[in-house]
Amino acid sequence: MAGTQRYMRYIVFALIALILLFFISSSSSVPSAQWPNYTSETPADPVGKPELATASGAKDQLAQPTTSPNDAKTLPPAVVSGDRMNATFVTLARNQDVWEIAKSIRHVEDRFNRKFNYDWVFLNDAEFSDEFKKVTTALVSGKTKYGLIPKEHWSFPDFIDQDRAAKVRDEMKEKKIIYGDSISYRHMCRYESGFFFRHPLMLDYEWYWRVEPSIELYCDINYDTFKFMAEKKKKYSFVISLYEYVETIPTLWDAVKNFTTAHPEHIAKDNSMKFLSDDGGETYNHCHFWSNFEIGNLNWLRSKAYIDYFESLDHAGGFFYERWGDAPVHSIAAALMLQKEELHFFNDIAYYHVPFTHCPTGEQYRLDHKCHCNPSDNFDWNGYSCTNRFFELNDIAKPEGYEKEQ
Ligand SMILES: Nc1nc2c(ncn2[C@@H]2O[C@H](COP(=O)(O)OP(=O)(O)O)[C@@H](O)[C@H]2O)c(=O)[nH]1
Ligand SMILES: *[C@@H]1O[C@H](CO)[C@@H](O)[C@H](O)[C@H]1NC(C)=O
Ligand SMILES: *[C@@H]1O[C@H](CO)[C@@H](O)[C@H](O)[C@H]1NC(C)=O
Ligand SMILES: *[C@@H]1O[C@H](CO)[C@@H](O)[C@H](O)[C@H]1NC(C)=O
Ligand SMILES: [Mg+2]
């Protein structure tokens, strides 16, 4: 008897379970007609290339409730109208740099390039991975291009004595000189000094803006910096300047003097020697523009003057027998072979590359441009900066409040 009762209870439970199951499964097929569909025709974000941003769809948007409080209609125009310069961003990077360059791209896009959509050229001594290409293409608002560096631009020239170069690397390692024992760092410095502007992908452009992994931009840049360079007849620019580590360039100045003696025709009359030397060119004071940021003219780098200069330095051997950096190499060229009016200090490009910050002096400027740098981090008026010399040499008035940042 107790057995039958238990049996009946099982049947009742089973029936209830079946009925419940029926309701659950059928309710999921009830059409949710009262919910408007979210379609891509009513973009939450109309930001895009100019030709894509049209007024169509605006009416639909009014008719349907928005699904997000972040209403894009209140955003300022995303893309500046008008023509563009013949210009590109350029980055030398390894595949493993992908996430660090991704951060840099976000900064550049957010603060500048989303409004201008300039192209971006990536260069590498090895083939870029699919992941690198996918991630960077998704982040850049302009076209992206990926170039392989030819072997002959990333190897020891035949006139370099390999044993001598190897001995130097051992000695520098011993002395704990940063990158002192690195072969690849030397190839990188030589490539940036003499070859990046000659890569086939770069031949399509006249202007470049160099970007390295893990940099930051701290203020909005609301105008076309390339157009500024062209209109003001600028050829080379910087945001941070400082003294080079002497151990890496003991004979660089001698090599430069050999070049200027051999090619006096390449030296500009109204040059910036005062930035480089305190004794009229006898010795180098080690000041240089920090080349991890550069906006410059590629045709100048491709000129006979610059190529003669690079080849002269290259044959002197210091890229391998010492550890010459592309920063002093570019800087000395710009200071000696350009008119001083052709150099520009971009005070308005607030910038960070480990370990230095350029944060524009002047509170009102920083507020107006939505800057997020801490002014007390500004390196400009620090004793190790050479920017003060640039101001004095060019007779530029220092920004108000600079004394407080010294
Ligand atoms: N493809 C490639 N890029 C390199 C190599 N070494 C450095 N770079 C790039 O060259 C630039 C300078 O190198 P980085 O490590 O930032 O040097 P640092 O700024 O002087 O410390 C960066 O854009 C790097 O991504 C290399 O061996 N291969
Ligand atoms: C929502 O989309 C579905 C599938 O595309 C479609 O069948 C349905 O009719 C749409 N509903 C409305 C309210 O537009
Ligand atoms: C851009 O500049 C390069 C180098 O000067 C030149 O070869 C190219 O024709 C220019 N492109 C345009 C569209 O003007
Ligand atoms: C400069 O030229 C002199 C004379 O030719 C040479 O002895 C010296 O090694 C050169 N210096 C450098 C750094 O190339
Ligand atoms: Mg770097």
Quick rundown:
By secondary structure, the chain is α/β, with parallel strands linked by helices. Helix content is 37%, strand content 11%.
What does this structure look like?
This protein has 406 residues and is an alpha/beta fold. Helix 3 (98-111) packs parallel to helix 4 (130-139) and helix 6 (183-194) packs parallel to helix 13. The chain has a domain at 73-149 and 195-232. It has helices at 2-27, 58-63, 98-111, 130-139, 162-174, 183-194, 225-231, 252-262, 273-276, 298-301, 304-316, 318-321, 326-337, 363-368, 387-393; strands at 87-92, 119-124, 144-148, 207-210, 216-217, 236-238, 241-243, 287-289, 294-297, 343-345, 351-353, 356-358. Residues 26-33 and 40-61 have low confidence and may be disordered. Strand 11 (351-353) and strand 12 (356-358) form a beta hairpin. The structure holds guanosine-5'-diphosphate, 2-acetamido-2-deoxy-beta-D-glucopyranose (3 copies) and magnesium ion (MG).
Task: Write the topology of this structure.
Blueprint: H1 2-27, H2 58-63, E1 87-92, H3 98-111, E2 119-124, H4 130-139, E3 144-148, H5 162-174, H6 183-194, E4 207-210, E5 216-217, H7 225-231, E6 236-238, E7 241-243, H8 252-262, H9 273-276, E8 287-289, E9 294-297, H10 298-301, H11 304-316, H12 318-321, H13 326-337, E10 343-345, E11 351-353, E12 356-358, H14 363-368, H15 387-393
Parallel strand pairs: 1-2, 1-4, 2-3, 6-10
Antiparallel strand pairs: 4-9, 5-11, 7-8, 11-12
Bound molecules: guanosine-5'-diphosphate (GDP), 2-acetamido-2-deoxy-beta-D-glucopyranose (3 copies) and magnesium ion.
One 2-acetamido-2-deoxy-beta-D-glucopyranose binds next to loops.
